[in-house]
Amino acid sequence: MKNLKIQWILGGIALLVLPLVLQYFGNAWVRIADLALLYVMLALGLNIVVGYAGLLDLGYVAFYAVGAYMFGLLASPHLADNFAWFAAQFPTGLHMSLWMVIPLALVLAACTGVLLGIPVLKLRGDYLAIVTLGFGEIIRIFMNNLDHPVNITNGPKGLGQIDSVKIFGLDLGKRLELFGYDINSVTLYYYLFLFLVLVTILVCYRLQDSRIGRAWMAIREDEIAAKAMGINTRNMKLLAFGMGASFGGVAGAMFAAFQGFVSPESFSLMESVMIVAMVVLGGIGHIPGVILGAVLLSALPEVLRYVAGPLQAMTDGRLDSSILRQLLIALAMIIVMLLRPRGLWPAPEHGKSLAQKS
After folding, report:
1. Residue 349 confidence (pLDDT)
2. pLDDT tens digit sequence for 93-104
């Protein structure tokens, strides 16, 4: 028990020191760590839907987009520039604080998740995957075309001039000097994202061990048996969609603040596929495995930039480096799935193969 506590303390110190070490190698590496934390939030949210409730969702990026565009509209001058009635009330735009942004993103994305869940309650497997995939694409197409006749999303040009996050007067978009040591903006965002990820992990663990979590797992294993045992499968499925979507909405809002710009290109089908791959590759339903899968798949494409360049030079530039990166990622995923079909870090006890504890 004592060794476990020491391991947790050392792990916590390593996470706190990590961005300060990465700063010496360039802000690009800290930025990779920031995006990895955002993907961890997304993967944990999708794990509620796919891992706990067993509902295959290929349109999860839609909730990411909803959160990002919500923050983009509320924290930029776009609405004031395009709507006279709004400019009369808020001439420079509505610049909301973090304490209002996170609850709003959570509630809005959860409501969107429930709206998606209502028409697909009776669908499972391939049919559910196709419908959710279509939902994700519909949201992206809406964002891409809602610039006329009324300019709401600014279409393919995207939303810019989005505010950075401010906490107790501290602007995370600006460099901070502390005791003569410079802390970059990306490092400040790292600590905010790390805090949100820790809260997400805590919520996921509490849900997993709660009556709601056990009801989701019962539905995943056998929906008919769960219904016969008195579980309201309709409400439980809607709750799974809503809870999973809420994490995606918060991650989307943080992404918009971090980037300062959002456009429909950031929410393509490939993003949804990658988030599903993170959950499956790490280990469906197992929180540590999902975190591992999210970190690996979010950081691997960036790390492989340094491998794809020399490989491209070996082919005299015949192969594009981005194609080589995707090829290497695909090969790595195929090898892992062949060698570890249940994921890199699967749950020790899962589903009907549950071992009886002595």
Report:
1. 63
2. 777 888 888 899
Cα–Cα distance, 122 to 115 (Å, whole number): 14
For the four alpha carbons of 289, 292, 294 and 300, in that order, the dihedral sign comes to negative
pTM for this predicted structure: 0.92
**DSSP state string for 257-316:** HHHS-B-GGGG-HHHHHHHHHHHHHH-TT-HHHHHHHHHHHHHHHHHTHHHHHHHHHHTT
Give, for 166, the enclosing helix (H) or strand (E): strand 166-167
> What are 99's two structure tokens?
């304490």
Q: What is the maximum span of the chain, computed from C-alpha positions, in angstroms? A: 70
Residues of the chain whose pLDDT is less than 70? 1, 317, 321, 349-358
Q: What distance in Å separates the CA atoms of residue 109 and residue 63, rounded to the nearest whole number?
A: 6
Determine the Cα–Cα distance for residues 155 and 64; give it in Å rounded to an integer: 17
3-class DSSP state of 178: strand
